[in-house]
Amino acid sequence: TQTLHLIYPQLNTSYIKEFESPITFGSQQTPNLPFIRSFFHQLDQQVRNNPNSFKTLNNYSIWLWHVCMIMTSARPSESFPPNLDYIDLDNLIVAVADKEQRYSGTIGRYLPFNRFLCNEIQYYLDYLKKKKKLIECCSYEVKVQAIQKVFDGESPFLLFYDPQGYVRNLELADIQKYCSEIALQRNWTRHFSRYFLGQYCNEDVIKGIFGHDEAMQELFDRYSGFQVTDYDQIRTAQDQLVEILKLKSMSGFTGITIT
């Protein structure tokens, strides 16, 4: 398995346009670490430096979507990240249903996530509460029912301001439009996580994370060999991912902007 140590050159800049070497590796054309670090840096700057509060909401949602995807290794879908009812912020567990069966229904699984992602979800929810109050006070023409649906557990928690004048759920089409200038495969976050987690987790744990395990060997199945200590492997790897990507917290929301 190719590891990140093979694709980790020393950089003088964090901007994609100045890279001289190829920015992908492997058969899936997965973006390499310098590219991804720069990508998250630029997403971060779009959140913090945009004077338009509605664009800030959109950029914030897109940033957190990518953080959720690369941390959990979930497949891109309209239902993930899910409703709050499927996220346990106390025990750091999320229910994922991103794998379609051949005939009908979905195959669900539970994934642990680290404290960083937990905190960022909570900061985002606090942001939504303040955003809702601000919109209601200053802009009656903007419809904000979607924000209340998030806290009622009726819809996925990431939202998007539509130029037609209402807040709605973030959609995959919004992600694709935002990243239209970058030729990335749709599930690049999943492929990158596979390479990264291979350095910290054993193969059985990785199969469980990615939904590739055998019948009755899924995480939490009563007959599986999954150990509670395997949580530590996964969350340690996620902590290392936060560090190596230099992800910054969005905790500094002032009520108007995020610092």
The portion of residues assigned to helices is 40-55%
CA-CA gap between termini: 39 Å
The overall pLDDT average reads: 79
Please count the beta strands (DSSP E, at least 2 residues each): 7
Low-pLDDT residue intervals, each spanning 5 or more residues: 1-22, 101-106
**Tertiary shape:** globular
How are helices and strands ordered from N to C? Answer: EEHHEEEHHEEHHHH
What structural keywords apply?
259 residues; alpha+beta; three-stranded antiparallel beta sheet; two-stranded antiparallel ribbon; 8 helices; 7 strands; 42% helix
Task: List the SSEs and their pairings.
Elements: E1 24-25, E2 30-31, H1 33-48, H2 53-72, E3 87-88, E4 93-100, E5 106-112, H3 115-138, H4 145-151, E6 159-162, E7 166-169, H5 172-178, H6 188-197, H7 203-210, H8 230-245
Antiparallel strand pairs: 1-2, 3-4, 4-5, 6-7
Helix pairs in contact: 1-2, 2-3, 2-6
Compact description:
The chain contains eight helices and seven strands.
Could you characterize what this model shows?
It is a single chain. This protein is α+β, with helices and mostly antiparallel strands and 259 residues long. Helices cover 42% and strands 11% of the residues. The chain has helices spanning 33-48, 53-72, 115-138, 145-151, 172-178, 188-197, 203-210, 230-245, and strands at residues 24-25, 30-31, 87-88, 93-100, 106-112, 159-162, 166-169. A hairpin with a 3-residue loop joins strand 6 and strand 7. Helix 1 (33-48) packs antiparallel against helix 2 (53-72), helix 2 packs antiparallel against helix 3 and helix 2 (53-72) packs across helix 6.
